[in-house]
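Lab meeting minutes (informal)
Scribe: AK
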Amino acid sequence: NIMNSMARADLSYEPLIQHMFRACMGDKKAGGGTRLDAQSVCNILHSHASLNIQAAGWQRHLCAYLEGLELRQVAPLGVANVAWSLAVLDIQKNSTVRWTLGALGNLEIQHLEPSMLRQVHQFLLWCEIEGLYDENILDKEWSSRLHRIVLSFRNEPCISELHQDVAGTVGKMNLEYQLETVHPESGYSLDIFLPNTNTAIEVDGPFHYMKGTQRPLGATVLKRRHLQQLGYDLVSVPYWEWDSCSTIKEKKAYLQSRLETLT
């Protein structure tokens, strides 16, 4: 519950995280000694992914717990959270991936919430990119059906003032661009797309980072990685760097320098 609350608030406190890790590992001085239940395992792993916490030892421990659970012990939301977490944290442990694929195969797609469908879709994309998908465990028709449903979602793009400012500057540089272009296979929406150079510009406001830090959250890390793996040249524009540019001349020079690093 503590880890869940921290993830929802985009907060991380390293000493507390280490204390909870020792407890999960059975350190009685840290309050451990009780075996974790299925929901706790899923919640902790999902919190790690949301906050982009790299803790290989703890994550190996959680994966071992998962693989010891019967599929019926894990609720559909837990399965979706685990799937997404493996993709974000890039945990390419074959036995855990196979367990997750098997758990997904037991779910009824029509009973999953849209947010869960998106999580699973990103996991399956990760499996395809990394060569981890095993259609002997999860039938391709199941994943194709989910893919079609996710791509049918139509959300109105929310374009912030920061996003509009960056796009306006791109326009003043006489570069052809498109706003909120959707990649047809992944379903990812590109903040600003430069078709002539196949470049994606991602405008990363404060909600892309852990509060009070310049550390990107898990969803942002996964999107950046996937866009590059899908063949885009990627430019990430952090809000604090953009805010340091006070004039249009400085903004144009900043973007030009970022784009030149791609060539």
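Next up, CB showed the second protein from the same session:
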Amino acid sequence: ERGEMGQGLLLVAFSQAGVFALIPAGTLAFSHVSAFGSYQRRVVPLVALQTAGPKSFDTEAVAKYSAAVTVQMGSVAAAFGAIDAATDAILGGPLPWQAVTALFWVLSLKSRVLNPLDNSRPDLNKVVEGEKSRGFNDRTMPSWTPPGVTFPIMWVLVVGPLRAFSSTLVWEATGMHLLNPVLLCIMLHLSVGDTWNCVNNVERRLGAAVPGVACVLASALFAAYQYSLVSPFAGELLGLTTVWITVAGALIADTWRINSAETGGKW
């Protein structure tokens, strides 16, 4: 049986004993062969095929992700220190609070520019239209997946401002300097999230994305706790973002379950 593919062909060879071989060369495949030589056609995302087979701990990949977070945190610390020095020299004091809020809102959305990995997000325009984009609808999604327009609303208009305002409160409560350990906690959270985007969206490691998103949630909880120690209200604001991250994490886990199940994969 030879099937049409998005970017080529997939050869399915089988015998009366039901033995078959798959040679992927595109984005879609189909085939199910019974033990009696008959078969049923079925469309299966190629990403599901990629989740099948033996699983092993990828030490090299974990080292790469850890290095990416370390590099990003070093870049953030250097940038924060430079901004503090520049404002002290030029303004004779700290930045206006409005500038700090704007800075952390931008970082909430664009911190990935400091990460050495390719951690592209899904195309927001395509997501809003419900179209296929890297990391969204390029795999079998759960039936309860929120409408595409939900994602930019939450990340840009809800999570971003909550991070920005809570960080401003912490900045004010800790001497009005960007380079301080508490504010670096939110940047650690963003660094972990940026690296996770590489895992999920670019490399499409759906299985690894599940513990990865758990790390994103854990780093958000850690940052919220650290914020609460210097400003309880800031901790509450940042803590609200973990509700959405929990929903996103459940979606990631369910996406892995569905795509893994299509080829008989197990947790």
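CB comment: Residues 59-90 form the longest helix (32 residues).
No objections, moving on.
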